[in-house]
Design goal:
Blueprint: E1 4-8, E2 25-27, H1 30-36, H2 39-51, H3 56-63, H4 67-79, E3 83-87, E4 92-96, E5 101-104
Parallel strand pairs: 1-2, 1-5
Antiparallel strand pairs: 3-4
């Protein structure tokens, strides 16, 4: 998994010209970025990458967190493209899309 470039841009700001350092993920503010990329959430992404749980129930057992709590966190992270939630027949498999970040400010 390669390092992802993260940027901060107000929703009304113009698009930047794509280039080598163009962010993969955009956040509307520093506060949002800090909440989404908290140490706990980064640890969760690494755990998903390393352990490859096949369901939210399995991930809950690995983390000691409740399934509804994990589900909310993962859906929020999915909205930013950090996690893919792959729907299988009866389960949802979390897949980490990024675990290392380079943050561009300004």
């Amino acid at each position: 998994m390669k390092r992802c470039v993260v940027g901060i841009r107000h929703p009304s700001a113009p698009e930047q010209i794509p280039g080598k350092e163009t962010p993969t993920f955009w956040f509307p503010s520093m506060a949002t970025m800090a909440a989404v990329l908290s140490e706990d959430n980064q640890a969760l992404l690494r755990l998903i990458r390393d352990q490859r749980p096949k369901s939210l129930t399995e991930l809950a057992e690995l983390t000691g967190r409740q399934v509804p709590n994990l589900s909310r966190t993962l859906r929020m992270m999915e909205g930013y493209g950090l996690v893919e939630l792959k729907k299988n027949v009866r389960e949802i498999e979390p897949i980490a899309q990024a675990t290392s970040f380079k943050i561009l400010i300004g």
